[in-house]
Q: What sequence folds into this?
């Protein structure tokens, strides 16, 4: 579900574009996740093409997760792999 929030953070997306960005997520799984996010009040579907967009609560969640996403990108690039979480080194 967090991946959907991540992809919607820059702005509204239609289902097909969101599905394309999700890569290996099936259409039925994405549809299910979007419905769950709508029920939770994190995503709205609107407009003539049914674009999905984060609600105020969804934007708040995205902002709260930003430090985690920043860290994950840093870790994936290898710049943080030499440090353990307890503050020491390997």
A:
């Amino acid at each position: 579900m967090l991946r959907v929030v991540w992809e919607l953070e820059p702005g509204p997306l239609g289902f097909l574009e969101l599905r394309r960005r999700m890569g290996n997520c099936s259409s039925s799984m994405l549809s299910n996740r979007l419905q769950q996010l709508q029920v939770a009040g994190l995503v709205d579907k609107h407009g003539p093409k049914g674009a999905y967009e984060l609600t105020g609560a969804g934007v708040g969640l995205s902002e709260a997760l930003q430090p985690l996403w920043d860290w994950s990108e840093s870790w994936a690039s290898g710049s943080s792999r030499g440090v353990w979480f307890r503050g020491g080194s390997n």
User: Anything to note?
Assistant: The first helix runs from residue 2 to 8. The beta strands are 43-46, 51-54. Confidence is low (pLDDT under 50) at residues 86-90. The first strand starts at residue 43 and ends at 46.
